[in-house]
From TrEMBL:
Localization per record: Membrane
Pfam families, alphabetized: MIP (PF00230)
Gene source species: Agromyces aureus
InterPro entries the record matches: Aquaporin-like (IPR023271), Aquaporin_transptr (IPR034294), MIP (IPR000425), MIP_CS (IPR022357)
The keyword Cell wall biogenesis/degradation is assigned to this record: no
Protein name (Swiss-Prot/TrEMBL): Aquaporin Z
Entry GO terms, CC: membrane
Matches recorded under PROSITE patterns: MIP
Any one Gene Ontology molecular-function term assigned to this protein's record: channel activity
Transmembrane segments: 21-43, 50-71, 101-125, 145-166, 178-198, 218-240
Keyword list, A-Z: Membrane, Transmembrane, Transmembrane helix, Transport
SUPFAM superfamilies: Aquaporin-like
Membrane topology designation: Multi-pass membrane protein
Family: Belongs to the MIP/aquaporin (TC 1.A.8) family.
Length: 252
């Protein structure tokens, strides 16, 4: 294939950013929609809600779907922490970071706004459900965990998540077409651990998207759901670059 053909086939900046908007929309719409409409759903005498497991699966499956649909275009980040972690690891150009993060924030806010519109025309409109779907400590923690616990679980879970992303997308990996599945399953497992503690963010775009409609507590605590995932991603990116990438270069 000629250089000209490669240049033509490469996604444009607009296509990449649009893919990040759409992918983040799918992620937030899927997981927050499940948390709002299905996790607490009850009918008659029986509970039909999907619970923590259903929300964790919704998060993982949303990422799998988005990654398969838009990964070939933008890389399928859908998360500012992932974008920053990949940049720190040397796997993503810093010049594109701001555009990606802006696109992810737009996609997340569009999704939560769409969910608000659906909720507003329902039989039991109550914007307080967005507080229940927001991430944080104390009143926002499903298990009543404190700030330190929430901070730790968000840092650790995001670091683990990024380690998996970096590992399964490394050059020379076999069955790279299964990478989105591995990434989504990792996110599901991490969510099963973190939902009772923090409501499982790992994603500043997802946290901001719910916090803007979640009331004073959600807005006041959203800083933690921005800082902790970014810190976890940066730690993972640095370790991967210094340990695994260096070892690969030395053995080459």
């Amino acid at each position: 294939m000629s250089d000209t053909a490669v240049a033509v086939d490469a996604p444009s900046t607009g296509q990449k950013l649009t893919a990040e908007v759409l992918g983040t929309f799918i992620l937030v719409f899927g997981v927050i929609g499940t948390a709002i409409f299905a996790a607490g759903f009850a009918a008659g005498d029986g509970n039909l809600n999907v619970g923590f497991l259903g929300v964790a699966l919704a998060l993982g499956l949303s990422v799998v779907v988005g990654a398969y649909a838009f990964g070939p275009v933008s890389g399928g980040h859908f998360n500012p922490a992932v974008t920053l972690g990949l940049a720190v690891a040397g796997r993503f150009p810093w010049r594109e970071v701001i555009g990606y993060i802006a696109a992810q924030l737009v996609g997340g806010i569009l999704a939560s706004t769409a969910l608000l519109g659906i909720l507003a025309t329902g039989p039991l409109f109550d914007i307080a459900v967005f507080q229940g779907a927001s991430t944080g400590y104390g009143v926002l923690s499903p298990g009543g965990y404190g700030l330190v616990s929430v901070f730790l679980v968000e840092v650790i879970a995001t670091a683990v998540f990024l380690f998996v992303i970096l590992g399964v997308t490394s050059a020379g990996r076999a069955a790279s077409n299964l990478a989105p599945l591995a990434i989504g399953l990792t996110l599901t497992v991490a969510a099963l651990v973190a939902i009772p503690v923090s409501n499982a963010s790992f994603n500043p775009a997802r946290s901001i998207a719910t916090a803007i409609y979640g009331g004073a507590d959600a807005i006041g605590q959203v800083w933690l759901s921005i800082v902790a995932p970014i810190l976890g991603a940066i730690i993972a990116g640095l370790i991967y670059k210094l340990v695994f990438d260096r070892a690969a270069k030395l053995s080459a």
